[in-house]
Amino acid sequence: MTPKRLHLILLAFATTSWVRADLATNLVAYWDFEGTADNHSSASGGAAYHGTLVGNAAVTGGTALAGTGSLVLDGDGDYLDVATIVDVNQAWTASAWYRPDLAPAGTARMMVFETSGNNSFAISFGLRESGNPASTNHQTVVDTTPTNDLFGNRDIADTLTAETWNHVALAFTPATATVAGSVVTYINGLVSQTLVIPAGSTLIIPDSGFHVGTYRNADGRWFDGSIDEVAIWNRTLSRNDVTELYERGAASLGLTADLAAAGKAFVSVESSDPALGETFGTGLYDLNESVLIEAVPKDGSLFTGWSAPFGAEPDFFNLTVTASVTLTAGFAQDTADPDADGLTNYQEIVLYFTDPDLADTDSDQISDGDEVLESLTNPLVSQLNAVNWIAANLGGGTEPGDIVLTRDSGTNTLSFKLKIDSSETLQSWGPLLPAATSSSGVAAGLIAVSFPPPWVDKGFFRVVGEAP
Ligand SMILES: [Ca+2]
Ligand SMILES: [Ca+2]
Ligand SMILES: [Ca+2]
Ligand SMILES: [Ca+2]
Hints:
Strand content: 25-35%
Bound molecules: calcium ion
Largest sheet: 7 strands, antiparallel
CATH architecture of the largest domain: Sandwich
Low-confidence stretches: 1-18, 42-46, 131-136, 147-157, 397-403, 434-439, 450-459, 463-468
Distance between the termini: 90 Å
Oligomer: single chain
Structural class: mainly beta
């Protein structure tokens, strides 16, 4: 391949890089329940993840979310049985739409899905109190080791609505030995619960697969209603990915349906650092619709620009939707220091809560920067009493030039100098130290004083003199 040819290929990547990544990226298995008989893995999983319909489970009839088929379960022993799909201790996401019947026939719980094993499981999502749909809560259960059932029976305070399609996505980020992981539960496109997986914990590994419509042992907790668009990825879907999943389903479009053919596109507006700024405008839109795209920095941060090819756009602008697209807003800490106190606006606003436009927030003559970096005092609590003591006791002398401390409230500056003189005869005085570098390496004319511990909790020291 010639360098020129390579260059053209790189250019092609560069000019198309803003096109949104397909939701099918890292999609391992996907059941759309549009076929017949045992069903289904229509996306990248192929036949490896063919499910087996058990009991009276069917993929026709009922109400479909997208297309014409869904998994229809009667709450009396029906479910879809699937072989092991993903290594649950790697990143993964599981997603499903579910529609409980008005009077569910299930037992005390109705499971949407659960990994199966011999009395152990990794993840579980279902509905509690299925006999009373109006008060039913969702339930995400994550089973971890070494602490069994660490997150057992955590209810999510969302009320179930029967005979209505609801969407769930569980997005898992594994913990490492030193960094915590998480399972984020999204209900109908919104974050409903975040479970933290402690550093060093792993999920209990299932030994025999995945059940849709019952729990691990498949002898109860039957789902009564319809389930559709079940999918598993071996990556952690982002919040915007889940928004797309939800909005596709709400528009009766499957997760691999061609949006352009349906006259739609998904706009994903992302943040370079959600701690510094957030974005608005993400959603599924009609082609040619005009959408307000916004980047809003948090206090102490700045918007630095949009990703290409939107670099010339301001922090908010109208986008005419022509194709699915991802825009990323750049945010950075505001490093300006307009009050010249040595602290950036980000440090003042986010870290120390001082006034970014006032050098000495607590008016104690010590600047905010000096309090944080030098005296290690509280920049929000006045140390003026101590400063006044210093001014009263070190602020004057008997001879011209003896002033050792000056205080300029106009510039918030304290200045002082110390000098130790010595005398042999009391008739003449001279510097204690010769005008040369001392043996301890301290600069000429200075004295180094060391204090043995304990001293670390002391913020001020008095220098008291006595007539020789
Ligand atoms: Ca400042
Ligand atoms: Ca300040
Ligand atoms: Ca101060
Ligand atoms: Ca202070």
